[in-house]
Amino acid sequence: MFNAISFVIPIAVIVVLVVIFLSFVPLGLWISAVSAGVRVSIFSLVGMRLRRVRADKIIRPLIKAQKAGMNVNANQLESHLLSGGRVDNVVDALIAAHRANLDLSFERAAAIDLAGRNVFEAVRMSVTPKIIETPWISAVAIDGIEVKVIAKVTVRANLGRLVGGAGEETIIARVGEGIVTTVGSSQSHKSVLENPDLISRTVLSKGLDSGTAFEILSIDIADVDIGRNIGAHLQIQQAEADKQIAQAKAEERRATAIAKEQEMRAEVEHMKAKVVEAEAEVPMAMADALRSGHLGVLDYYHMQNVQADTQMKQNFGTTDLNNIFHKDDNAKK
User: Fold this and answer.
1) Torsion on CA atoms 105, 108, 114, 115, rounded to nearest 10
2) In sequence order, which residues have a C-beta less than 8 Å from that of residue 253 and are 6 or more positions away?
3) Is this model's pTM higher than 0.70 or not?
């Protein structure tokens, strides 16, 4: 019984030690690396484990790089992984650049990856250019006709300017600005329709890819269409504005005329009031003249007769006119 126990205990200890060893050392991954010709020591794998680095994210890309003939070591890959980079993507980009004879170092590929760009897609775009299609770009020629243009921009990634370079939105904005400037300087929209390649040549010569992460290879006009007559629309708006201004000035003159008319009427009423006031003072003046002897009784009666005669003549004339109008109305009936 004692001999059996003494035999089992060492075996158990050995099994526990093996389990602990395998928990720290990915033995299968180490065997894969050795069989692929990648020199990685057991202690390096243990160190990765202690640094909380997944060894498979380092060893597998390292095997891929070594097989492709790339000069990359485990320390570089581990440093990039700890910096938050995508190791597998960087290695794929290096292999693609090596196959396409592009000058791309590990440091630049890692910098591009840490900048948030897809370095593998950038390498693919360097080999196979990408076509960027702009939306409808509206421009107005000198004759006032709106011209709508769609352009296709063929670009290639510039690996040397991927870090800090502007993206596709900047390319689209600059191309749109160039199209608007070129169409706006054209005397007629017909010249734009006849020679759409003039737009692409003019825009391409402006060096729009400076400061961007791309190199513009060509700008092709995909579609051209005629829009509104902006010049006529602006003239109509100007005419409407002039009409409103003229109406406002006419209203101002009418208000001034009404104010002057009311002022004149007020003056007439004031004069009439003064006349009535003066007429009210006539009897008092005549009484004073009679008392003072400046006006005799006969003169007073003579003046009364004259006023009565004048009043009678006025009434007679008014009656005759009314009779005449009445006769005319009867004749018409």
Assistant:
1) -150
2) none
3) no
